[in-house]
Amino acid sequence: MNDEQARSWTDGLSAAKRVEVVALTVDEPRTANWIAAEAEVAHETATKYLTRLVDDGKLRSDTRGQQTIYEPDPVGQYLVEMRELYDEHSPDELAASLEDINEQIRTWKAKYDVETANQLRASLSRTEDVTDERDRRQVAREWDHLATRRRLVEDALRLYDRFPSERRSASA
């Protein structure tokens, strides 16, 4: 792959958007220098937009020694995802999603004879099969993801109780 193909993700994106995309997708805290390099902007530009993202509640920052590091704000992300579920899905669609999630978790509980993802992780010491061990690790990660997703869906459904006519009145 040539340099132009590798950089194509930046095409058409403003500096602010590039900084936001990079900063909101990191999987560990990163410095403004690192984010600037990835977003292909100057350090000062990155710092300006990172400060704005912190002020907007999308990122959180922490000073460690001489460096400030940035990472996505988990509460802010949760609220954005919950709002998207509320805006984009009906209560019936959310309920169906909740049923699917619960069924998958019940299946894993029965298959592995455990009650939680962490119990499944603890069961790794009782298996000698490398493939089974890898499968259990993967299922535990998926289980964690589905547990978070279930909480999001449940909270989005609660929004319908709290604001029953808000979403539907706008589209009616």
Question: How would you describe this protein?
Answer:
By secondary structure, the protein is mainly α. It is 68% helix and 8% strand. The protein has a three-stranded antiparallel sheet with strand order 1-3-2. A hairpin with a 2-residue loop joins strand 2 (59-64) and strand 3 (67-72). Helix 2 packs across helix 3. The radius of gyration is 21 Å and the shape is globular. The relative contact order is 0.08. Mean pLDDT is 89; it is low at 168-172.
Give descriptors for this structure.
172 residues, 8% strand, single chain, disordered C terminus, mainly alpha
How many helices does DSSP assign?
A: 9
Strand percentage: 5-15%
Radius of gyration: 21 Å
* SSE pattern, N- to C-terminal: HHEHHEEHHHHH
How much is the average pLDDT? 89
Report helical residue fraction: 55-70%
End-to-end separation: 49 Å
| Multimeric state | single chain
Strands of the largest sheet, in order across it? 1-3-2
Largest sheet: 3 strands, antiparallel
The 3D shape can be described as globular
Spans where pLDDT lies below 50 across 5 or more residues: 168-172
Kindly state the number of beta strands: 3
Based on secondary structure, the structural category is mainly alpha
